[in-house]
Design a protein that fits this description.
- This protein has one domain.
- Helix content is 80%, strand content 0%.
- The chain has seven helices and no strands.
- Helix 2 crosses helix 7, helix 3 packs antiparallel against helix 4 and helix 5 runs antiparallel to helix 6.
- It is mostly helical and 176 residues long.
Length: 176
């Protein structure tokens, strides 16, 4: 199972990392396309995490003799999700450092522009400005960037691992 998790995790990681770099290279640096970029981002995550379905089904049919428990299927999917997520985080850390070092500033400007367009009252706007200032300070800490980046992708991977486990579970018949 470890080899299968590693192989499919790396495949999923290459898919998500490659698609992230391609989409970020075409991303407007002023963040005006935020919603569209989110749709593209989550779509690429779903595409990459589809490797879980291939891996779990393959494991069930080959190594499991046609059977797999929910726990084993979820474990396989979770390891794949973790490997792919780690590659995603590493790719983002490298990409943002070398090609998008002002990400936090651009993101804050885009979120404040969005808040202004929503015609927030002065108190809510001041709170949003403080939130974005806090975000920029927090984003200077690489550990926080890593944790936030994992939070973008890993929960989705774990949910997909659970769905995959529920779909492919098949208990071995009880021998009497």
């Amino acid at each position: 199972m470890t080899k299968k998790a590693l192989v499919y995790g790396l495949i999923a990681g290459v898919i998500i990392s490659t698609l992230m770099v391609i989409s970020m290279a075409n991303c407007p640096k002023d963040m005006e396309g935020g919603t569209g970029m989110m749709i593209i981002g989550f779509s690429t995550m779903f595409i990459a995490f589809s490797m879980m379905f291939v891996a779990v089904r393959s494991y069930r049919n080959k190594e499991g003799g046609g059977y797999i428990t929910i726990g084993k299927a979820f474990s396989l999917g979770a390891v794949i999700a973790f490997i792919a997520s780690t590659m995603y985080v590493i790719t983002w850390m490298i990409y943002s450092h070398f090609f998008f070092p002002d990400f936090a500033d651009k993101y804050a400007v885009a979120m404040l522009a969005k808040a202004q367009a929503a015609h927030l009252n002065a108190a809510k706007m001041a709170a949003k400005v403080k939130e974005m200032d806090d975000f920029k300070i927090m984003y200077r800490n690489p550990v926080m960037v890593v944790l936030m980046t994992y939070m973008e992708i890993l929960p989705l991977g774990l949910v997909i691992a659970l769905v995959c486990a529920l779909i492919y579970k098949k208990k071995a018949p009880v021998v009497q």
